[in-house]
Amino acid sequence: MSMQSIASPVYSFTPPRRNSLTHIPGDEGWPLIGKTLEVLADPKGQVERQSKKYGLVYRSHLFGETSIVLLGPEANELVLFDQAKQFSSTLGWGRILGLLFPRGLMLLDFEEHRLHRRALSVAFKSGPMKSYLGELDTGIAARVAQWKAAPGPMLFYPAMKQLTLDLAATSFLGAGLGPEVDEITNAFVDMVAASVAVIRKPLPGTPMARGVRGRKRIVAYFSEQIPIRRAKGGGDDLFSQLCHATHEDGALLSTQDIVDHMSFLMMAAHDTLTSSLTSFVGELAAHPEWQQKLRDEVSGLGLAPSAPTSFDNLEAMPLTEMAFKEALRLKPPVPSMPRRAIRDFTFKGYAIPAGSMVGINPLFTHHMPDIWSEPEKFDPLRFTDEAQRNRHRFAWVPYGGGAHMCLGLHFAYMQAKCFARHFLQNLSVSLEPGYKPDWQIWPIPKPRDGLRVVLKPV
Length: 458
Fold this sequence. Notes:
The chain is 49% helix and 10% strand. With 458 residues, it is of the alpha+beta class. The strands form four sheets. Strands 1-2-8-5-3 form a five-stranded mixed β-sheet. The chain has a three-stranded antiparallel β-sheet with strand order 4-12-9. Strands 6-7 form a two-stranded antiparallel sheet.
C-alpha cells in the first residue's frame, strides 16, 4: 500500500455551540479561564469533586474550550479501544504537542497510525531490545556505583532525570556519539519543558521559544545523520533501526517521518520514565517492608554485583514488576488523555455532538474505591494474576490502550526492572523523619521539591 494513499484525513470541525452541550451537567467556571486554574492547582481533587457532584459524565471548560469529561473504565474503553474510530488523537493532543512534536506516533490517527506503528515496531523487536538492555544495564550500574560512593541525602528527581536522559541518548542514538551529544540532549530538555509550559506561543524569552529553537536543532541533527546512518548500515540503536525501517510497500520512512518519530519517542522515554521511576523509588522509600521484599527477590537472582542483567533475570522479578505497576496506578505518568469526537456519539445516555473535545482520566480511574480498596494505599498485590483477572481490563491504563497503547511499554518495564536490580542490590533508600513529598500531578507527575531521600549502601 502506498503511503500517499493513507495519510490521515484532514478533519474539519467546528466546536459545538455551547447550547448544544447544556444538557450535560457541569460547571464551566469563570469566563475565559473556566476551570483551568482549579485543575492546575489540584487535578485529582478537582475531578473527584466534580464527579461526586455531577457523575461520571460532566461538562467543564479547560484551556479556552468547553470539554466533556468521561470517567471510569467504561469511558476508557470507549475512547481508547475506539472500535468505531470516532475519536481523533491528532485533534486531541495537537494543541498540546503539535508545535514541538508534530506527527509523533501519538498524534496520528487510524490507518496512518497503524502503518507508522507497524514500521516503528521493528525497533522494539528482540534483537534491538537486547542491545538496549546492554546499554541500559551498563549505564545504570555505573550511575548507581557513583551514588553508592557518595551516600547520604539527595534530591532524587533531578538525578533520575539526568540518568534517563543519558540512557535515552545511548540506547536510542547509539554509543560513541560526538561532541554534539550535550547540545542534542539540551535541545530535548528544552522541547520537553516547553511541551508543558503555560504560555503556548513562542514569545521571546519563554520556554516555548526555547523549545521551538530546540526542535530546529533536533531537526537539523537528525536530517544530517539519516543518510550517514543509512550508508553505514547495521546499528542496534533505535535511531539506526528507524533509518532502515520500511512501510508495508517496502518504502523507507521519509526523513521527516524519522525526525518526528525520534523526537517524540525520545520525549516519551525520557519524561514519563523519569516520573514513573521517581514515584516507584518514592514508594519504596516510604514502605521499607516492600523495599526489602524486592531486595530479597533481587538477591534470589544469584547475580554478582558486576554481572550483567539478562532477559531471564528480568522475567524472574515478578514482585518488582507488581510494585512498579502499583506506583503507576498511584501516579500515572499521563494523568489525563484528550481526544476530539469526529462523529456524534452517546455515552451513559448523553448525546455528545461531533467536534466536542473529550477527555478521560486515568488518575481518577486508578483511585476509584469501588475498584481499588483503600485506593491511596501502596499495595503491589493488586497486580497478582488473579487480582488482575477480576478487574475491568480498562481499570488500569497508565500506558493508554487500544491502537494507541504505548509502543515502548516493554522498554519501560525492562528499564524499571534493570534499575531496581542494581539500585536494590547496592543501596537502601529512606525518607527523613516527618518528611512528606509534595507532588505536582499534572501534566506529568513530579515532586515539586525534587523528592528528598537518604541513600545508604546495603
